[in-house]
Amino acid sequence: MQDNQEVIRRLKTTEGHIRGVQRMVEDGAYCIDVIQQIQAVQAALNKISADILDRHLNSCLITAVRGDDPAERERVLKEISEVFATSSKI
Amino acid sequence: MQDNQEVIRRLKTTEGHIRGVQRMVEDGAYCIDVIQQIQAVQAALNKISADILDRHLNSCLITAVRGDDPAERERVLKEISEVFATSSKI
Amino acid sequence: MQDNQEVIRRLKTTEGHIRGVQRMVEDGAYCIDVIQQIQAVQAALNKISADILDRHLNSCLITAVRGDDPAERERVLKEISEVFATSSKI
Amino acid sequence: MQDNQEVIRRLKTTEGHIRGVQRMVEDGAYCIDVIQQIQAVQAALNKISADILDRHLNSCLITAVRGDDPAERERVLKEISEVFATSSKI
Lengths: 90, 90, 90, 90
Known about the structure:
Chain A has 90 residues and is mostly helical. Chain A is built from three helices and no strands. In chain A, helix 1 (2-26) runs antiparallel to helix 2. Chains A and C meet through loops of A and loops of C.
């Protein structure tokens, strides 16, 4: 699926970014520069998460809310509440 | 509505908490103690937001997703994506 | 002290903002609008915390680091680490 | 340096974790499971950042604050304020 390829591509970029941070630490880079690069990785991961949630809302959520299984619907809505609550805590 | 009363009660508690922080600053409290109290207010606001979103998912969202208006459904899903994206940034 | 007055003024603004959010809930405002206002309050509190920490670094921290008491210095540095660690979690 | 080895080891673990998330996406894993793994990576990065800052406070900061160069001291304190302000925003 097209969208999955795009998510994988961005995760690979993030992986490369983290390898770059490792090299910075190996080379004795200045602590604050290392922290700023880690913060950049986190900002990129935030965007990836937000895009995955967006897709989820427009697919699984719609299916569950329109479906006939109230337990399934409740489960899907509860999961979204939980990832929102966690996102405020990290 | 019962739930609204509970949200208002918790917002009032938060308001009182912020007034308490003002008094701390007036009394020349130690900076770190002030910051920790502000962080406690933030944690409380996170929980209030998460609970309001939870209610929203279980009411407006269900109505919009089951409704016949695709523009309305899109709008509601987009809003949820946006509050999630913002929640990672504050 | 001048700076304290400014912090108190901004906390009062935040307190008024939270009272406004209570009125929104009382008036049955749309959930997403309420959440966005709470997020605005949190962004304001983040800035207030950051400014208080900035003052702290430029006063108490300097005194502690230059002082003769290693336990005091350790305590002050540990506190700063802790508020930083907490700030990532809320 | 011992501490650097430990930071590099934890960054390598994070890198492996992100590779695992890529495989999950390739295998068509459930969106919410993917988001939760990304959130776990972010929590790990938060801890690594906090530990690097802690080391920084106990080395560079002490040197700068005790040193004779007011511009250098100001720079170091400002950097810490900035990473704190950014940490509240991601």
